[in-house]
Amino acid sequence: MFKHSDYVPKTRHERWIEARLPIIRFSHETAVSYPVPRNLNYFWTFGGILTFMLAAQIVTGIVLAMHYVPNSDLAFQSIERIMRDVNYGWLIRYLHANGASMFFIAVYVHIFRGLYYGSYKAPREIIWILGITNLLIMMATAFLGYVLPWGQMSFWGATVITNLFSAIPLVGETIVQYLWGGYSVGNATLNRFFSLHYLLPFMLVGTVTLHVWALHHVGQNNPTGVEITDFRKDTVPFTPHATLKDLFSIITFIIFFAYWVFYMPNYLGHADNYIPANPAVTPAHIVPEWYFLPFYAILRAIPDKLGGVIAMVLAIVIVVFLPWIDTSKVRSMSYRPIARPLLRMFIAAFIGLGYLGSMPAEGGYVIAARILTMLYFGYFVALPIVGLFETPLPLPLSIKESVLARHKTPDLLVGRPAMRKQKTASG
């Protein structure tokens, strides 16, 4: 557990507040004096980017909810009215719609960083579980939000995805009817989805708070995977070191975000969603948003409906169990010569499945999707086996040493070979 800050109230007002609600001390411990490993790279700034994106999505979503009409006859027209008649409504809508894609870009980078550097390993299992829980809530929220414009892709996407629950034996049809609020996707469905879409982001705030709380309790991982041994040498205060790095990354990400909003606001969407929902006309090719495509490809790769649903759900849920699937004692893939290319194969399979999910479910696309699905799940089969016999590269003895080695400090030449040999022998 990390040490507390040495914050001391300096004024009479601060002492009065501290005696009744130590919020200033809590803020100081969380965002000022909190010790972070001195070797963190820019991949660790995506937590701050995600916090910013969550706040942006909530603010823009609340404003849009003020003008949106959750009625199957008026929803599409209310979106057009927001775009044309509400002051800066077009900007708020594009920020919210593209913000969902930016949110998923950041969360996928955040997850893959955790996979590469072993951030799921003990004692950070709860942090990892909460992180995947956040992903599931994000996915549910994004799906519900995609239905709200009530265009062709919204309507038929809702129809296809909710129908997947009918594959569950005995209770599937009942679940679908409860989701629809009737016997087909309609006005009741839209009202339910709007209510849940408004509620879930605030649930996400709660789980993110737990995620950060757990992180601050056990401390952050770092690129070497070596635990902190000396706070004075291995860590730096969160402010200004991590704060400035986070601020720079957030500004850079905002510029990237703004490019999509102002130059290609509809590129990540689907043209059919600018056509009002019509239950009598089925689109030629029904696809979800791009961030669901890898899992959609897995769903379609399995010829059986129930089997496809199970595989799609398992593709997400299995990630939760990585702390116990990975048997290696070494965290960072930087020191794992066999597991590292396996992870690269896994990431390539994920990206490939994303592409195949946007293609028609026919011919060679289905065959390729099945091959990549096997590679995707093969990673979780191979990882525990590799961890048993893999010989990792020598680890640095401390975080400070890894920083000095990166800058090629001559001090490391003294006594280093014997220490490294002893470290390797002790495991």
Gyration radius, to the nearest Å?
Answer: 24 Å
Largest sheet: 2 strands, antiparallel
Question: What's the level 1 CATH class of the largest domain?
Answer: Mainly Alpha
Shape: globular
Quickly count the helices.
Answer: 18
Mean pLDDT: 92
Q: So, CATH architecture of the largest domain?
A: Up-down Bundle
Protein name: Cytochrome b
GO molecular function: metal ion binding; oxidoreductase activity; quinol-cytochrome-c reductase activity
Function: Component of the ubiquinol-cytochrome c reductase complex (complex III or cytochrome b-c1 complex), which is a respiratory chain that generates an electrochemical potential coupled to ATP synthesis.
Binding site for heme b b562: 96, 197
Question: Can you describe this structure?
Answer:
The protein has 427 residues and is mainly alpha-helical. It has 2 domains: 12-399, Cytochrome Bc1 Complex, Chain C, CATH 1.20.810; 400-427, no CATH class. 64% of the residues lie in helices and 1% in strands. The protein has 18 helices and 2 strands. The protein has helices at 12-20, 23-31, 46-65, 75-84, 89-117, 125-147, 152-163, 172-180, 187-218, 231-234, 238-263, 293-301, 305-317, 322-325, 339-357, 363-389, 399-406, 416-426, and strands at 35-37, 235-237. Strands 1-2 form a two-stranded antiparallel sheet. Helix 12 (293-301) crosses helix 15 (339-357). It is globular, with a radius of gyration of 24 Å. Residues 410-427 have low confidence and may be disordered. Residues 13-224 form the Cytochrome b/b6 N-terminal region profile domain. Its cofactor is heme; heme b. Belongs to the cytochrome b family. Heme b b562 binds at residues 96, 197. The chain crosses the membrane at residues 42-69, 90-111, 126-148, 155-176, 196-215, 247-268, 306-325, 337-356, 368-389.
